[in-house]
Amino acid sequence: MPPPQARLPWELEEEILTRLPTKFLVRFRTVCKQWNSLFNDRSFIYNHLFLPRPQFILLTKYTIYSIDITDPTMKLLERHTSRLGLSLHKANITTCDEFLFFNYHPWEEKTSLCNPWLRQVKWIKLVVDKHFDVFGLGYDNSRPEKVYKMLGYMRCPSKVQTNSYLQRVSMEVVDNVYKMLEYFRSPPEDQINCAFQTLRFIDTPDEDMPMSETAKSSHVSLNGNLYWIACNRQTREYFIQSFDFSSEIFKPVCLLPFQESSSCDEHVLAVFKGDRFSLLMQCYLTRKIEIWVTKRKIDDTEEVVWMNLMTLTATNLPKLFNKLYGVSYFVYDNTLVMCCGDDESGKPCIYIVKGDTCNKIHIGADRITWFTHCAYVPNWTSVPLEF
Fold first, then answer.
1. Distance from C-alpha of 104 to C-alpha of 142, rounded to nearest angstrom
2. Rounded to whole angstroms, how far apart are CA atoms 281 and 261?
3. Higher model confidence: residue 234 or residue 367?
4. Residue 196: pLDDT band with limits 50, 70, 90
5. CB-based contact 269:228 (threshold 8 Å)
6. b or e along 351-381 (b: 16 or more beta carbons within 10 Å of the residue's beta carbon)?
7. C-alpha to C-alpha distance for 230 and 242, rounded to whole angstroms
């Protein structure tokens, strides 16, 4: 009888697994029940979440790519998602914590959550009026379990000249279906109970809740809530606006750390280290880039304090304002990594900026005529089968 094989202490085994790339962990789920249970453990997921370097997700008409950056090289990997039935053309992608959120045109009547590393997707059917636009997805973080909700608005052509032109709507997912029974041209009731869904109209003046098309494609998700950059129409102050899905209210979070900024300057908000904000600001005249981060994690109990993380003055920095397909970025190891269109051709490029140097890498897909992108941290959190 062969002698029993020596086994590593479980703590050491867990530490080793924490440091492995996500693509290997997906395969290792089937090794044993203990490993599979570990990969579903929340603390293990968070420990691993902070170790991987963020990547970019690039979405084209027909393909999803992940872009792994190791200065000065780039690894472009096609994510095989054909079996998932994802409609890629003209979708907008943002993140909802560990997942990608696919937001389509209103007439598509659907959205979806996806984890491309696990090749999992969850479709959310929208039975709504053609004038309904989805703004973003979040969840009620006051409950023990995640209850996903959607924020959107209805365009009411008969009220273009009034403050009710955009009717804000909060909807809670029930049986995986968002449903609205009719299109309201008159002031809606406070609450409409539908067959599958509860719809709540949020009576908020437009000036208290700026929801622009830019914010729709550039908001960030943190702890179930949505955040985006807005500008006060009266004071012209820039601030971070939020929507709290637990209380279903809009509320300002904090002012941006610079108020003398020109309206032509570019501002991009991102999540930093999983629980804080980072803010990119590029001066329109000089192209100088400043990266600001919040000193503490974002919650309702602490005042937001900004600190300057880096100022970048390389002479060949790209022009970030008015990019057709937007700008996404992350900060890792004192390096700014950006994804956006080339200044001249508009083709997708990666820019790696550190100190006074800026390296540009062409993604090299000349056939790409349309794309969207976002920064994303690889993980193996399973997409919920039921909400």
1. 28
2. 9
3. 234
4. very low
5. yes
6. bbbbeeebeebebeeeebeebbbbbbbbbbb
7. 10
pTM: 0.78
Q: Strands, E, within 297-347: which ranges?
A: 306-312, 328-332, 335-341
Q: How far is CA 166 from the centre of its chain?
A: 23
Beta bridge partners of 272: 276
How far is Cα 378 from Cα 272, in angstroms, rounded to an integer?
15
User: Which pLDDT score, from 0 to 100, does residue 361 have?
Assistant: 92
Residue with tokens 């279906």: 177
- DSSP run (H or E) holding 38: helix 33-40
Q: Which stretch of 39-53, 159-173, 296-310, 366-380 has the lowest confidence by average pLDDT? A: 159-173
Among 155, 202, 152, CA closest to 178: 152
User: SS3 of 174, please?
Assistant: strand
What CA–CA distance (Å, rounded) separates 151 from 358? 38
Residue reference for tokens 């830019």: 214
Which domains are present in the chain? Answer: 9-51 (no CATH), 52-376 (2.120.10)
Instruction: Name residue 281's beta-bridge partners.
Output: 267, 290
Please state whether the peptide bond connecting residue 52 to the residue before it is cis, i.e. omega within 30 degrees of 0.
no
Phi-psi region of 287 (alpha: psi -120 to 50; beta: other; left: phi over 0): left
